[in-house]
Description:
The complex is a heterotrimer.
Chain A: E1 7-16, E2 19-29, E3 34-38, H1 45-53, E4 60-65, E5 68-69, E6 80-83, H2 95-105, H3 110-124, H4 139-151, E7 157-161, H5 169-186, E8 189-194, H6 197-203, E9 206-211, E10 214-219, H7 221-226, H8 231-236, E11 243-252, E12 255-260, E13 263-266, E14 281-286, E15 292-306, E16 310-317, E17 320-327, E18 337-341, E19 348-351
Chain B: H1 19-46, H2 50-54, H3 68-75, H4 87-117, H5 123-133, H6 139-152, H7 158-183, H8 186-194, H9 199-210, H10 212-227, H11 231-236, H12 244-253, H13 261-282, H14 284-294
Chain C: H1 4-43, H2 59-65, H3 68-99, H4 106-114, H5 121-131, H6 138-144, H7 161-186, H8 190-198, H9 203-214, H10 216-231, H11 235-240, H12 252-260, H13 266-300
Helix pairs in contact in C: 1-13, 2-13, 3-7, 3-10, 4-7, 5-7, 7-10, 10-13, 12-13
Amino acid sequence: MNKRCDVSIRGAEIAYGTIKILEKFDLEVAQSEFIVLLGPSGCGKSTLLNAIAGLVDLRDGQIWIGGNNVTWEEPKDRGIAMVFQSYALYPRMTVRGNMSFGLKVAGMPPAEIARRVDNAAAMLKITELLDRRPAELSGGQRQRVAIGRALVRDAGVYLFDEPLSNLDAQLRAELRVEIKRLHQRLAATMIYVTHDQIEALTLADRIAVMKDRVIQQLGTPSDIYRRPANRFVASFVGSPAMNFLPGTFAVHDGVPCFAAAGISIPLEGYGFDARPQPGAAIELGIRPEHVEAGGDLPAAVEMVEPMGSDQLAWLRLASQPLSMRLPADTPIAAGQSLQLRLPADKLNLFDAASGRRL
Amino acid sequence: MTVSPALQPNGAPPSRMTPGRIGIYAFLVVTALFFLTPLYVMIVTSLKTMGEIRLGAILALPRAPTFEPWIVAWSSACTGLRCNGISVGFLNSVKILVPSVIVSIAAGALTGYTLSFWKVRGAGLLFGTLMVVAFVPYQIFIYPLVRVLAFIGINNSIPGIVLIHTIFGLPTMTLLFRNYFGALPPELFRAARVDGAGFFRIFWSVMLPMATPMLVVAIILQVTGIWNDFILGLVFAGRDNLPMTVQLNNIVNSTQGERAYNVDMAATILTALVPLVVYFASGRWFVRGIAAGAVKG
Amino acid sequence: MMPVSFVKHRLASRLAVGLALSPAILVVVVVYVGCTAWTMWISLTASRMLPNSTFVGLRQYASLMGNERWQVSVVNLAVFGALFLAASLALGFLLAVMIDQRVRAEDLLRSIFLYPFSMSFIVTGLVWQWLLNPSFGIEKMGRDLGLDWFRFDWIVRQDMVIYTLVFAAVWHAAGLVMAILLAGLRGIDPEIWKAARIDGLPPWRVYLSIVIPMLGASFATASVLLATSVVRLYDLAVAMTNGGPGLASEVPAKFVMDHLFERGNLGLATAAATSMLITVAAVVAPWLYWQARQRDRRLAA
């Protein structure tokens, strides 16, 4: 029954008047893939999603869904379903009414409609809510109903526009798991837009990190986390955020090094994408959990933040702030001195000017 | 199967000027003409001579436009026994309008301010009663009010009609200002009190200057409402102070013999002029006024 | 022991509040409550040209019910009211929906539909009286176009004149309804439109099944405003037809005014006015109550 379509965006250009939202945009989404469009507000991800849905016209380029060119098709003819940030439920209808209205208007036989609605309600655990109105539901319940309304359409592609952004942190975590389970169960193609990097990392098969209307990096969550393609992706993904140290590239006795105020970090074992010139200004990035004790870089502990399962220590290295993640029971206090080691294979080097990965 | 690129859907879909869209524009244009016709006919008729009018063709443009009917309407049309034109009524309306607008808005603003910021026992009841009464037809109040005003000695006078307009404007004006003040941040009021300002000082120096948008809306509503009023002016203003609307009705409907339709229309336009000018000059503010006044409670 | 200055300050505030509210309180008590009571009292007495304090119970109301002029007035108002309400709401809704379709020149169109509302009822009545004049108005225009059978003399026909009042009143009020409903339409979450489009709902279906139910409050507001102006109908009838021809466009408000002044029958006039009040109360009270309940429910949520 599931169609599981692939999606292909070719050379898309979207503009409002003279303002360009997207230019020469390409993206391929495979069948059954869960792809997340991640980025800050204004990067164009929502507009792209609306264009895939057919709610926004392209100025140039094509959109293909399931092998069909749907660039000029109305949303209802594209085989898509969509879940919105504000749920967009019809306020005066019951949950059952909301889920069945589109199918009723399309002329589907009532028995089939009832079957689909009951199936979806069971999957989302909202069967007891079927006769209630949206106003009587909590935010989390409303979002489940919105997802249910999308599910009954049995679409080839499911589109999610920041569906969890209006929920509080706990509900967000709950529904995140639900959505992931849904994807495992249905193996449907899902395109998900969010600005929350945790949602992206947990849900996606692949993430497209977007900024300023351009894809900064397209890859698996693991790639994006371990080898960010530029400084923006490195700083945007991961919490607590990555540490950055400004410095220069140097070669001492044939060994490439990172040099900053009074310290030198050897870069043997670092996989270079591009080799910088000696003396070039570069930035070193390292995640708090990769900073190790037991090396020869002197650092002073300024502050410790307990975070439950572990603690975050704020240090000063080469007069730059540096955060370090430690297990909760490691004794550490402000004023202490530590010797740090920054392992080369966990480092990320970026060109100071362009931000590109080196 | 390869399709040549020229036939592939690409970019923006072809223009969606469907029959539906054309229908929408057609409906809007036709309805707009229906709405404009009376105004057009008013103007056109007032510029024709009686000879031309007698020939019919109400929608035709005047062949020899003349402002004579306007001059007659303004200065020599007969309202009842006097024949000094509707200029008399215009002056009366102005004499009624200016004090009425000022006093009714002041009363509403003060009442709205008090009910908004100061804890008063029974405030809800007072406000509720004001709102309810806004719906009651004037006829209930007319006879007793005539007696009361006569007792005070201001019946059939300008102060009398000003008082009447204030009384009947109080519900709407209070509603306007109470809603507006209610939407302001309460910290403003508290800060003023901490600064040591008293009741009237806060009203005059802090709240009233902040209420400029609502003052504009209130002025638009009151100018339109009071200028267009007929029944209250008829009963309470007195024969020497009859407003323009009353005089207009007299000019048109109480002429014996053949009616001078062009003079009638000219007088009608003159009467409609002030609110029309306010309307077109105020633009979106007029709509704001409707929205503010229509949201009762 | 509270400082004297504090007590004086509190007292000054209390006085000021009382002073500021005295106009409102006076108005409510003296005018609204007092005058209403006075009018109702007179309706229970034998007053004619002058007030007379002989209590006669409901005799005035009985003679009111039997009065042919009053009966005709009430029927006229009922017919007028029903048609006016239906037509204004329908036309206002259509206009609001059309303008909401992102048409060009929206401001201009809105100005055109709303300007009649800025004009006095007297002006409205006189203009339409002229337009519908059988000898010189639309009927003449039709005949001049060669259509000898064309008749549009409703304004001088007893069986049709009430409909001319409806025309003029709808022309006056449709813009108001449009403005209120347009504001309501604009308040609808745009994502609902997107969801409806994805659900494949044709626009008319969206309006019928989703939008109109959501506009309940706006429709109610517009209806109440229209209904109150129906009961107050006076200026328009006086200017356009003066109740004629015969009694065919008499209305209750005019009945009251005529009997208060020209015909000198206070008892009958006040009985008529009280009847109008009761009718208005019957319509408005439930709506106000419902509004208060909504507000309380919203505050509690």
